[in-house]
Amino acid sequence: MSELKIYFKNKYYRSKFKLILILPIIIFLILFDLITKTIVQNTMSIDETKVAIEWLFNFHYILNKGGAGGFMDDKPGLIIAGATITTIFLIVAFIIVNETKFLIPISIVIAGSAGNLIGRIWGPEGAVVDFLEPGTFLKKIVFWAPNGIFNIADLLVNIGIIIMFIVLFIYIAISIYELQIKRNQDLFEHYIEREVKLFKARRDFENSKGYIFKPEISWSVYKENIKKIKRDFVNFKKQNKHASS
After folding, report:
1. How far apart are CA 27 and CA 63, in angstroms?
2. d(Cα 25, Cα 94) in Å, to the nearest integer?
3. CB under 8 Å to 22, separation ≥6 — which residues?
4. 8-state DSSP, 142
5. What are the E-state strand segments in 56-180?
6. Residue 62: phi, psi to the nearest 5?
7. Cβ–Cβ < 8 Å for 68, 154
């Protein structure tokens, strides 16, 4: 019964974290994207170009019926349907996922996907406003679409995906590391103990009443606690290595 109470308590605080901190960020990013599109519509003519930072990016206003970079621009209905399904899937993932490391990239992609979806619904003939054209230097980096024109929402989607790949890479690296230290039972037990302590420290910090604005556990105390837990494990690893050599 006590475990069930702890489960629902943690679920409540994670939901609170999403609603109070993450959701406003998503809304801000969506509004920022829509505002930039509106400004471009009201200040530029279609196919007009304005030099911004020549080597980085320029403003080039177009109406894009396709995906990023003009992909499938002859099938706007299919693009809107795909964007709707993708956005719904991401929202479901946002509701289900509780790990902060996955929530952040998912939230960024949601903002980008929703921004373009709203832009298409309100845009002419299902078209979305694109206005960011890669400059001379950026074209070398964006090698898959050097001549493409994008918007803020497209950038958010790409940034979110890149962060997600980085998170997954770190997750895989940690999993491999865990497999290696499993060979040393004593070291593995201390590693698990460290992970439990880190989890409890993060949970206690997040669950402290009003943790976002007036934390009962200050950020400095929390970070010092995290450092101590990690430092203790590093010291144990050194001792274990000397003992086994």
Report:
1. 24
2. 13
3. 94, 103, 104, 107
4. S
5. 57-64, 128-134
6. -135, 160
7. yes
Annotated domain spans of the chain: 2-171, 182-244
| CA–CA gap between residue 157 and residue 161 (Å, rounded) | 6
Instruction: Return the number of other C-beta atoms located less than 10 Å from residue 24's C-beta.
Output: 10
How high does pLDDT run on average in the chain? 80
* DSSP classification of residue 21: I
CA 25 and chain centroid, separation = 11
Q: Diameter of the chain by CA atoms?
A: 73
219/132: higher pLDDT: 132
* CB-count burial class (<10 Å; 0-12, 13-18, 19+) for 52: middle
Examine the pLDDT at 140 and tell me if it is beyond 80: no
Q: Which residue has the higher pLDDT, 113 or 67?
A: 113
Which residue in this structure is represented by tokens 């939901």?
A: 15
Tens of pLDDT, residues 1-40: 444 444 444 555 567 778 888 899 999 999 999 999 999 9
What CA–CA distance (Å, rounded) separates 44 from 137? 24
Residues designated catalytic: 130, 154
3-state secondary structure of 109: helix
pLDDT in tens, 54-79: 778 899 999 887 665 555 555 556 66
Q: Tokens for 51?
A: 């030099």
Q: Which residue has the tokens 């274990």?
A: 240
Count CB atoms within 10 A of the CB of residue 20: 13
Q: Tokens in use for 86? A: 């993708």
